[in-house]
Specification:
434 residues, alpha/beta, Rossmann fold, 2 domains, two-stranded antiparallel ribbon, 20 helices, 49% helix, 11% strand, binds tryptophan
Length: 434
């Protein structure tokens, strides 16, 4: 069955006419009320992450879920239950995420998927592949090929600084790795038509032909055959595949921002035709710009973003000057009515980065009822981000060119193929055992 949503993604112009929220891999514009994520789930045809799923993840990983999950920052998924079934049955899976290297310095929003991917790698102990789409940025932006390639290496340092385990992580530049990827890319290209990608991505006949084939390149790492050095196939595997017309049972889980979903709808559509498992997905909300939640943070706007290269003073000034406040217009108003947290950017940033639930709840209660002023909340955020960004810079500085090369080199990864998990069905059976 096709996974395309009822209506194809419309071009920006068409959507603006109807004043609908625009969410494509290239453009996010939500109108004044912010992105309606519930509506997006319906539009895209994904599943909301339920309490049940969170509980199940905790049961399977035997760890509390990441605060991004608890707080609904990762809010939508495809096939997570199937992935967990497989995991419990002792079948292997791997993680796949990526980054389009279009700017020298990444901003806070870019960290979200990588911080979350690091958590997933830690709790599931699985291999991770990271695609650097220097080719994509060349095709879409005014960027020279060699510059895009250089940015891959610059950005790779920021990704490595998130703490990934080198023995389980492979980062690759499309420009460098295409020879290895190409067989899988071709299989996909042969199964997807121009009218399909036009329908999903809104490409026009006047767009360059590289764009038309790029979805196959972003899709390919979802299939394990793109990484023969990580997932080698034996002669026996190949014989079996010929008979059954099915590839090995290796699933892929893709953590990404929800705007990347169109690529993976196409991927999931072609997967069964090629004998692969469909990749599972877990989607995040966007990280809001300083000016407000109706735009996502963009690296092309200096005052809308906090960069990973910012100094403590820049961070302080940007938050004080530009962070949109939902607090009362005057001290008296704030004390009387409290803040509107739904539009308050400092509070929203704290939800992303302040891990301590108790502290966050304290701020929520006091700020929303007027017992705390915007300036104090901004102060708490400034302290937190100054520390976080400085620590990131410290870690990044220590990464050598040799280490980057190693992460990007085609090599075996060391991970143990999983075994059947001891399934612990519920808390009550746990209690009975004791
Ligand atoms: N297209 C993404 C970007 O522009 C990069 C990317 C490639 C990616 N593969 C991915 C993102 C897989 C998430 C998951 O940033």
């Amino acid at each position: 069955m096709s996974e395309q949503p009822q209506e194809p993604i419309q071009s920006t112009e068409q959507q603006q006419e109807k004043k609908e929220q625009i969410v494509t891999p290239w453009d996010v514009d939500a109108g004044d009320d912010g992105v309606d994520y519930g509506k997006l789930i319906n539009q895209f045809g994904s599943q909301a992450i339920s309490e049940d799923l969170l509980e199940r993840i905790e049961r399977v990983t035997k760890k509390p879920v990441h605060h991004f999950l608890k707080r609904g920052i990762f809010f939508s998924h495809r096939d997570m239950h199937k992935l967990l079934d497989y995991y419990e049955q002792g079948k292997p899976f791997y993680l796949y995420t990526g980054r389009g290297p279009s700017s020298e310095s990444m901003h806070l929003g870019h960290l979200i998927p990588f911080m979350f991917t690091k958590y997933l790698q830690d709790v599931f102990d699985v291999p991770l592949v990271v695609q650097m789409t220097d080719d994509e940025k060349f095709l879409w932006k005014k960027l020279e090929l060699e510059e895009a390639h250089r940015l891959t290496y610059e950005n790779a340092k920021d990704i490595i600084a998130c703490g990934f385990d080198m023995s389980k992580t492979f980062i690759f530049s499309n420009l460098d790795y295409m020879g290895h990827l190409y067989r899988t890319v071709l299989e996909i290209e042969k199964s997807v038509t121009c009218s399909q990608v036009k329908g999903v991505f809104g490409f026009e006949d006047s767009d360059n032909i590289g764009k038309f084939s790029f979805p196959a390149i972003q899709a390919a790492p979802s299939f394990y055959t793109s990484f023969p050095h990580i997932f080698p196939e034996t002669a026996e595997d190949k014989k079996k595949q010929k008979k059954t017309k099915r590839k090995n049972d290796i699933m892929c889980l893709i953590p990404c921002a929800i705007d990347q979903d169109p690529y993976f709808r196409v991927t999931r559509d072609v997967a069964p035709k090629l004998g692969f498992q469909k990749p599972a997905l877990i989607h995040s909300k966007f990280f809001p710009a300083l000016q407000g939640a109706n735009k996502k943070m963009s690296s092309s706007s200096d005052t809308s973003s906090i960069f990973l290269t910012d100094t403590p003073k820049q961070i302080k000034d940007k938050i004080n000057k530009h962070a949109f406040s939902g607090g009362g217009a005057t001290k008296e108003d704030q004390e009387k009515y409290g803040a509107n947290l739904a539009v308050d950017v400092p509070y929203q940033y704290l939800q992303f980065f302040l891990e301590d639930d108790v502290q966050l709840e304290d701020i929520r209660e006091k700020y929303s009822t007027g017992k705390m002023l915007t300036g104090q909340v901004k102060g708490a955020l400034i302290d937190l981000l100054q520390k976080m960004v400085a620590e990131h810079q410290e870690r990044r500085k220590k990464i050598t060119d040799e280490q980057v090369k190693e992460f990007l080199s085609v090599r075996k990864l060391s991970f143990t193929m999983p075994t059947k998990k001891e399934v612990v069905p519920s808390a009550t059976t746990e209690a009975k055992k004791e």
